Amino acid sequence: MPELPNADPRLVGLKLQPAALRLGFLAAAWQIFLLREFAAQFYGSEISFGFVLAFWLLWGGLGSRAGNGRLLGRATAEGCLFAALIGAPFGFALLRLSGPALGLLPGEVTGFGPILLFAAVSAGPMNFFLGAAFARTAAHRRPAGAYLWESAGAAAGAALSYGFLVPALPAGAALAVIGVVGAASSRLDGPAARRRAWAWAWVGAAAWSLLPAFLDAPSQAVRWRPFELVLTKDGPSGRMQAVRRADEVTVYENGLKTFAAADRSESVESAGFALLQRPRAGRVLLLGGGWAGLAAEVLRYDPEAVDIVESDYAAVKAVLPFLPPRDRAALADPRVHWTIADGRRHLERASRRYDFILIGLPDPATAQLNRFYSAEFFRLAASRLDPGGVLSFRAGAAENYIGPVLARYLATHEATLRTAFPIVEIAPGASAVFLASRGPLTLDPDRLAGELERRDAATASFNRAFLQARLHPLRRESLRTALSAAGAAINSDDRPISYFYHALLWSAQKKGPDAAWLDRLASIRPSVLLAAAILPLLLIMGASLLRSRRGSRMPPSYPFLVLGLTTMAAELLLMIRYQTLHGGLYGRVALLLGLFMAGTTAGAWLAARIKAETPAAILVPSAVSFLLLGFSALGWDKGLGAAGFACLFPVWGCWGGFLFAALSRACPAPEGLSGRGYAADLLGAFAGSLVLSAVLLPLAGLDRLFAALAAINLALLGALALDRRFRGV
Amino acid sequence: MTSFRAQANLVRMRRRSFLGGAAGVGLALGTGAGKLLAGAWTGGESPSPPRTEARYYKKLPGREVLCGLCPRACLVADKERGFCGVRQNIGGTYYSLVYGKVCALNVDPIEKKPFFHVLPKTDALSLATAGCNFHCKFCQNWEISQSRPEQVEATDLSPRAAAEAALRHGCPSIAFTYSEPTVFYEYMSDTAAEARKRGLKSVVVSNGHINPEPLRALTEKVDAIKIDLKAFRPEFYRTYVRGELDPVLESIRIVRQSGVWLEIVYLVIPTLNDGEAEIRDMSRWMAGEIGPDVPVHFSRFQPMYLLKNLPPTPVATLEAARRTALAEGLRYVYVGNVPGHEGENTYCPKCRTAVIERSGFEIRANRLKGGACPNCRTPIPGLWA
Ligand code: SF4
Q1: What is the CATH number for A589?
Q2: Which CATH number fits the domain that encloses residue A297?
C-alpha cells in the first residue's frame, strides 16, 4: 500500500487513473517474479517469501516517503517511473548473479544472511522508484482513487502473470514483457506535451526492459559455470535445471540436487532397506524421486506394480532425455504407472492399498516438502498401506557423528512417524533411512543380507559387507542414543517444525550468528515467543489509549500498525497454509496475490462508495477480522478445498483495502505529519513478515499464529471502542 | 591469536559415559544431561573442558606460547586458543582440550578409510575428537571437525580403554580418523602406544598438515598413515581448505622415508581439482619423490557440507585420472567410492593378475600368497598380516 499524500482523504474519485493502474500492474507483476526468482535461487524456501515481501514493502514505503519529500528534488512521476523501469533489470541481474557475487561455487549452500541481504537489495531498484512514482502521481490526483486504481492494476498484473507470463515464458522474457508494457503504456498516456517530452525516454526504457530476456539463459549458465547447463525449466513446483559434466547429468529443483547420475546411493538404499522388510515387493507407491533412479532400484525387487506420482510432469518430461538408459528403461517398464497429481491428493483419493510407500523427496527444506513429513501425512499414508505395509523415506544425516542439532531434526522425524506407526526403525548413515510400519521391521544386517541374496538383488554397493558396516550395532546404538537424548517435537501441517529444524541445520553449517540465535529461539516455548511478540503491540495500544484519556487529539497510529501486521501476516499465513494443504504455491503465487489485490481494489472501492467514516465502518471490519482469524485458528478453513481456500485471499484483501481507506479518513494525519498512519501500517507489515516467516511460523505453528492475530485484533477492537478519538468520527 | 577467544555463546558439553555391553556389543555412547546454555542466556557458567599439557610448543615471554605441532605455528596469548580450537594457552602453559574426549566412535571396514594395502577385510575401531587445522568446504565430518570441544558431545575414553575396546570388537587396528588426528596428537600417540602393547595396529587418516618433528615421532608409534592430498595447486589449498600444499608434500616424504605404510587419497572434485595437468603433475611428483609403490586413490567426491549441491564426480573423470597416474608409472592406482569398478581391485604390476578383488567394502577374492602375486610371485607391498 503506497503512501497517500497529505491531501483531503475524503476526495474519492473513481475516474480511471491510468498512471496508478500502471504502477499497480508493475508492482504486482514484478513482485510475483521476484518471489518466484527467490524461490528458484534459494532452495524454494518460503522463508525467503517473507523476506522478499518485507523488503518490498520497506522499499516501497521509503520510495513513497522520498516521493512526498524533497529527497528526489524536482523529479516528476514520469522520472520516477523511468528510474523504476531502468532499475528492474538491475534487481533481476543482482539476484541472478547472487552466487558469483558472494563468491559461491556452483552448488555451494548459503545461509540466511545472504538471502536476507539479497532480499534487501534486489527489491530496491524497482520498488523504491515505484513508491516514489506513486506518491508523485497521487499528489496531482484524487488519492483514494489512485489507491483504488493502483490495486486494480495490481490485480491485473497478477492475473496476467498467472494466466500468461508464468506458464508461457521464462522468467527473463516475462520480466521483459512487464517492462515493455509499463514503458509502452506510459508512452501512450498523459497530455500530448508530456508524451512528446518523454517519447524517447519510454522507447529507451522499453528497449532496456528487454535486457532480462537476453540475460536469462546466460545468467543461469554463469551460475553453474564451468558445468554445462543443459536444461532449465520453470514448472509449478519450481525451477528444474540439469547440468552436465563428462556426460553425467545432475538435476536440480530450486537449486537442490534431486538426481545425480554419478551417485545412485540414495535410491539404492531407500529401495533396499524398505523392500527387504517383506518377502515380496507387491504394490509400491513412489512419491517423488520415481524418475530420479528410485523406480529403477525398486524394479530390482520384482514388484507387482509401481505407481509413480509426480506433480510436475512437464518438468520431469523435459529431464527424461538426459537420464541414463537404465532409468529411462525402468520408466517404460509395463509395471510402472505414472500419475500426474499432487502426492497427498493422490493418497487421499487412492482406492487401492499399497505394500510400500517410498517418499523420494528432498529433506523438508520448504513448507511444500514439509507436508510429506507431517503427522497428518503419515497418518494418511498409514491408512493407505496394507496392515504389514512399510513407509520409508531418507533424511540428510551424518555417518560418524550425530550432533545435537541434527539429533533433534532426526528425532522429530522419528517422533512424528510414531504418531502413525507403532514400529519405527532408522538405518544410520550420511542419509538416514527411516522405516515405519504396523508390522515387524528389522535392521539386522545378517537377516537383510540373507533376504538380499535370496532375491538375487545384491549389487556392488548394496551387499552383505555394506550392510554389516552400515548397520554395525555400535553405529546404530550411537544413533539411538543421540536421538533419545534430543528433544523431539511432532512435525505437523500446522507447526512445520521439521522445516525449521532443517533450516537450523542448514545455518549451523555456516556457523553464522543466525544459527546460534535460531537455536536459542527453538528452545523457548512457543507461547512465550508469541507473548513476547504480542506484548509490544498491547503496550503501544495501552499507551495510546492513555493519551486519549488525557485528552490528546492526535490521531492514533496503532490501528494502522495492527492493520499492516494483520494484512501481511494473514497473507503469508494463508499462503503457507495453502501450500501445506494443496501444494504448488510456486505456480499459483501469482493467482493468489492477484486475488488478494483484487480484493484490495474491491475494498477500497467499497470504502469509496459507502460512508466509510463512521465508527461502525471501522469497528465492524475489525470484528470481521477477528472472526476470520478465529475461523482459521480453529482450522475450519482446512475443509474448504483448494478453490474455497483461494477465496479467502480476496476476502482478506477486501478487508485490508476497506479498513485502510476507512482508517485513513477516520485518522487524517495532522498537517506536517503526512503519512504517519501509513508509516505505522508499513512498520507493522514489515516486522510481521520478517518475524513471522523466519521464526514464529515454524515454531509456534499456523493455528497458534492465527489465534494470536485474533487476540491482537480483539485487543484492537477493544481499544477502538474505548478510544475517545474515534467516538467523534 | 585473538580470533579464538573462548566463545561460549552456545555451549553444549554433554558428558557421555561408556556403558558396557549395550546392544550386545559391549560399548555404547550414552548421553547424560548437562546441557548448559551459556552466558547471558541462562546466566550460567560454561564448563571448562578438562585438559592435558600439549606437546610441541614453546613458552614465550608474556605468557604467550608458540604451537609447534602444525605448520600454522599459532602464536597464542594467554586464555586464547589456536586455529584448530582444541588447544588453549592457560597462564602460559599450552593444553590439549581433547585428550580422551572422543566424540565419534565406530567400527568400520578398513577399506572405508580407505586402506587397500593394510589388513584387508578387517575392521578398524575408528575414533575422533573435535577440531581440525583445515577448513574444507567439502568436509564430510564438519560437525566435529569444525567444532570446538565444548560444542560437541564427547565421551571419556582413555588410551587404554580405546585399545581394549578395539580388542573387544575384534578389530585388529585402531584408526584415528574423521576429524584431523594431528590436533589430538597427544591422545593419538598414547593410544597408539597402548594399542601396540596389545598387538594391535594403529592407522592414521590425516591431511598431512603437521610439522616434521611431531610427525617423525608419530611414525615411531603407528603402522600406517593415509594422507589426503586435496589438490596439487597451492591456490586450491589456500582457497578451499585454508591451508598450504608444501607442508603436506613434506609430510608425505617423511612418512615414506620412515617406513610406515603410506597411502594417498586424492578426492577429485569436479571443476576444482580434476584437471588432467594437475593430476599428471601430482603423479609425476609421487613417482619421483616417493616412488611408484605408494597406492593412490582417486576418490569420487560426494556432495557434502557447503558443497552439498555440487555434482558428484563423473566416473569418466576418475578413470581419466587413473589412466594418467598409471601412465606416469604409479603402480597401485585406485578409483574410490565407485563400488564395483575395476579400479577398486589390486593388480599385480608385473602380470596384471587381480590379486585382490573388491566391490565396495566387500573383498570378493584375496589371492595374495605371502604378500605376493600368486601368478608371478611379484611382492605386493603392504601390511598384509
Ligand atoms: S595444531 Fe596447528 S592449528 Fe592447532 S594450535 Fe597448533 S599450530 Fe595452531
Answers
A1: 1.20.1250
A2: 3.40.50.150
Nearest CA among A94, A109, A155, A37 for reference residue A596: A155
CA torsion A575-A581-A586-A587 (nearest 10°) is: -110
The percentage of chain A sitting over the pLDDT mark of 70, rounded to a whole number, equals 92
**Residues near ligand 1 (Cβ within 6 A):** B 67, 69-70, 72-74, 82-84, 87, 133, 183
Give me the mean pLDDT over the B53-79 stretch: 97
Mean pLDDT check: name the lowest of A254-263, A679-688, B156-165, B267-276.
Answer: A679-688
Nearest to B310 among A105, A246, A460 (CB): A105
Q: What is the mean pLDDT of residues B201-230?
A: 98
Q: Would you call A528 an interface residue with chain B, using a CB distance cutoff of 8 Å?
A: no
Q: What is the pLDDT of residue A680?
A: 66
| pLDDT for position B19 | 28
Number of domains in chain B: 2
Indicate the range of A315-324, A562-571, A600-609, B105-114 predicted with least confidence: A600-609
Q: What is the pTM for the complete model shown?
A: 0.84
- Any idea which of A319-333, A416-430, A553-567, A676-690 has the lowest mean pLDDT? A676-690
Q: Which residues pair with A235 in a beta bridge?
A: A238
How many structural domains does chain A have? 3
Sheet with B261-268, edge to edge strand ranges:
B104-109, B123-128, B173-176, B201-206, B224-228, B261-268, B296-300, B333-336
A168-182, A244-258, A415-429, B50-64: range with lowest mean pLDDT:
A244-258
Phi then psi dihedrals of residue A426, to 5 deg: -130, 120
Q: ipTM of this model? A: 0.84
CA dist A229 and A485 (Å) reads: 44
- Read off the pLDDT of residues A56-105 as tens digits, 9 standing for 90 and up: 888 887 887 787 777 777 778 888 999 999 999 998 888 888 888 877 77
Q: Specify the DSSP element, H or E, that contains A537.
A: helix A526-549
* Domain encompassing residue B84: 52-96
8 Å CB contact between B169 and B26: yes
Which SS3 state, helix, strand or coil, does residue B71 take? coil
Contacting residues for A415 by C-beta, under 8 A, at least 6 apart:
A488, A489, A490
Cβ of residue B310 closer than 8 Å to a chain A Cβ = yes
Same domain, A367 and A454: yes
How far is ligand 1, taken at its centre, from the CA of residue B141, in Å?
19
Residue B131 lies in a domain: yes
Angle at which helix A112-122 crosses helix A497-510, to 10 degrees, equals 100
Beta bridge partners of B353: none
Residue B5 has pLDDT above 70, yes or no: no
**Which of B80, B96, B112 is the last residue in one of the domains?**
B96
Distance from CA of B258 to the nearest CA of A (A): 30
CB-based contact B287:A89 (threshold 8 Å) = no
Q: Which of A253, A274, A300 is the last residue of a domain?
A: A253
Instruction: Give yes or no for residue A671 having a pLDDT over 60.
Output: no
B-contacting residues of A 422-461, CB under 8 Å?
Answer: 430, 459-461
User: Going by C-beta distance under 8 Å and a sequence separation of 6 or more, which residues neighbour residue B138?
Assistant: B240, B267, B269, B301, B303, B304, B305, B306, B307, B310
Q: Which amino acid is at B120?
A: P
Rounded Cα distance, B86 and B65, in Å? 14
Backbone phi and psi for residue B176, each to the nearest 5 degrees, phi listed first: -95, 115
**Domain assignment present for A402:** no
Does the residue B383 lie in any domain?
Answer: no
Over residues A705-719, mean pLDDT: 90
Q: Does A444 lie in the same domain as A372?
A: yes
CATH number at residue B28: 3.20.20.70
Is residue B355 domain-resident?
A: no
pLDDT value of residue B308: 76
Q: Are A373 and A364 in contact (CB under 8 A)?
A: yes
